[in-house]
Amino acid sequence: DAGVIQSPRHEVTEMGQEVTLRCKPISGHDYLFWYRQTMMRGLELLIYFNNNVPIDDSGMPEDRFSAKMPNASFSTLKIQPSEPRDSAVYFCASSTGTSGLTDTQYFGPGTRLTVL
Amino acid sequence: ILNVEQSPQSLHVQEGDSTNFTCSFPSSNFYALHWYRWETAKSPEALFVMTLNGDEKKKGRISATLNTKEGYSYLYIKGSQPEDSATYLCASDNYGQNFDFGPGTRLSVLP
Questions:
Q1: What are the pLDDT digits (tens) for A67-107?
Q2: CA-nearest residue of chain A to B51?
Q3: Which of A32, A36, A101 to mutate to test the interface with B (most CBs of B within 10 A)?
Q4: What angle do CA A42, A44, A45 make, to 5 degrees?
Q5: pLDDT averaged over every residue in chain B
Q6: DSSP type of residue A28
Q7: Do A105 and B34 touch (CB under 8 A)?
């Protein structure tokens, strides 16, 4: 398996633009997680899905952020409109098993977002 | 306010030394404790997931213990090597309500 795949790897955009980050989890994994990593706040869990259903989105910073998982092999994290403070590395991770959060999570390579 | 704390913030050891660091977390509603190893410019690598009080897990020269009653976990590295240099993160899950990461311990192993 290729592991968790994220695209794009780097994204530079201007303030106010819409940004869409993409993630393909490891095949067969039931849980998918979106994280954001910044120097100020460290690693934060934004939202996670189980069987394509959002379970906990309490970490999503505000209404400008939305995440979807239309099927078991694809998820998107969208920021609209983007702001400079959204600049960060966004990680996607997936895991399997019945417990989700107690199982090993496999991280993707991350998307480095810069909002000018 | 950090729910999960780690100490020390950074650590420098000589190659061959053994070392350990601490993760403190809220013991109420505890569900699971995760340890990650994070090298610069790479994705976090999951090391351990522990759920039971008294759990001990081992992966090569790295091991971890868990005390859920008092809310702490230790990570040990035996015979540190330069390739162990990384930031070690712990994260606490409290019945799916919060999944909080600590600030990390940055380990540098000097050859």
A1: 999 999 999 999 999 999 999 989 998 887 655 455 667 78
A2: A102
A3: A101
A4: 160
A5: 88
A6: T
A7: yes
Q: A111 pLDDT exceeds 70?
A: yes
Q: Give the CA distances from residue A3 to residues A29, A70, B48, in Å, rounded to whole numbers and listed in that order.
A: 11, 19, 19
CA distance A20 to B34: 29
Report the distance separating Cα B111 and Cα B108, nearest Å. Answer: 10
Secondary structure (3-state) at A83: coil
**Residue in A43, A57, A102 to test binding to B, most B beta-carbons within 10 Å:** A43
Contact between B90 and B5 (Cβ < 8 Å): no
pLDDT at B70 over 90: yes
Residues of A in contact with B103 (CB under 8 A): 42
3-state secondary structure of A17: coil
Residue indicated by tokens 């759990």: B55
Whose CA is closest to A77, among A91, A56, A96?
Answer: A91
Angle at A48 between CA A46 and CA A51, to 5 degrees: 165
For chain A, positions 66-85, list CB contacts with chain B under 8 A.
none
Q: Per residue in A25-44, pLDDT tens?
A: 999 998 999 999 876 777 78
**Residue-level length of chain B:** 111
At B110, is the secondary structure helix, strand, or coil? strand
C-alpha distance from residue B46 to each of A52, A111, B71 (Å):
23, 19, 20
